[in-house]
Amino acid sequence: MPSKPYLNFADVQKIATAAHAEAVANNWAVTIAICDDGGHLLSLQRLDGAAPLSSHIAPSKAKTAALGRRESKVYEDIINNGRTAFLTVPFVEGMLEGGVPVIVDGHVIGAVGVSGVKSDQDAQIAKAGIAALAQ
């Protein structure tokens, strides 16, 4: 039977700590969500000053990246390039940049979603969190 890696509690803490540090270093008030490969929420941090709505957007971005097995920006680009019918895809709600899959040995094992600043900055925070797994 095949096996694959998965996010354990220590992994989630590493990602959350590094993402939090990136946000704080840039003085960005955001919400950081981490989910497993099925889009199930494992961690949620709403930093001081982050908009309440960001606590709904960040998990949606993470879930979209996990289930789609790609960055949520891909879906934003599809829609912005005119394929508005893509908005009808089921279970895909966070179609904005800022959701990044966690990939280990070619397997998507989860994702990080961030909301609260510019979308590319959200993605920067998510990627900083994920990079902590390699350390």
From TrEMBL:
Any Pfam family the entry gives: HbpS-like
Organism in which the protein naturally occurs: Massilia aquatica
Lineage, uppermost ranks: Bacteria, Pseudomonadati, Pseudomonadota, Betaproteobacteria, Burkholderiales
Protein name: Heme-binding protein
Gene3D superfamilies: Haem-degrading domain
